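Worked example 3 (structure in, sequence out).
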């Protein structure tokens, strides 16, 4: 084996792809300390998120199904699969797929947290990062989530 064999698989990456990958790593690191520390803008959001903790202060970590549901919904959101989103919500698929109300809440939290972070990246780059770039990075985000939550 030559010391140059590793170079065979090297591919050029766009700056937008690198930005998406790095944001995914940052968000995954924040999520590894579940639930992440947040500053709430709305008291309703704060009250809803407090349900991630039980009366003794124990944290309800999302199950593999909750993580998978959040990832699936992210795919639909960024690919604009409105029919799939509408069907999912109308038929309450999240409630059927998760292990209980706390798990549903954890999945919902994951989805909102990741979606807002990725949309913020699009906004902060003034549109240079597009939905297509996000969609390319989502498989890597799923792998990071699986590593964190054991999904």
């Amino acid at each position: 084996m030559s010391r140059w064999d590793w170079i065979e698989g090297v591919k050029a990456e766009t700056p937008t792809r690198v930005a998406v990958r790095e944001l995914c790593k940052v968000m995954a690191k924040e999520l590894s300390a579940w639930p992440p520390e947040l500053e709430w803008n709305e008291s309703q959001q704060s009250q809803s998120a407090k349900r991630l903790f039980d009366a003794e202060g124990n944290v309800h970590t999302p199950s593999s199904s909750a993580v998978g549901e959040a990832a699936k919904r992210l795919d639909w959101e960024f690919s604009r699969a409105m029919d799939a989103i509408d069907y999912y919500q109308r038929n309450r698929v999240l409630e059927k797929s998760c292990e209980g109300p706390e798990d549903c809440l954890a999945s919902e939290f994951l989805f909102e947290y990741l979606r807002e972070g990725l949309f913020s990246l699009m906004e902060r780059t003034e549109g240079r990062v597009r939905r297509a770039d996000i969609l390319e990075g989502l498989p890597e985000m799923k792998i990071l989530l699986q590593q964190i939550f054991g999904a």
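Notes: The chain has a mean pLDDT of 87. The longest helix spans residues 101-124.
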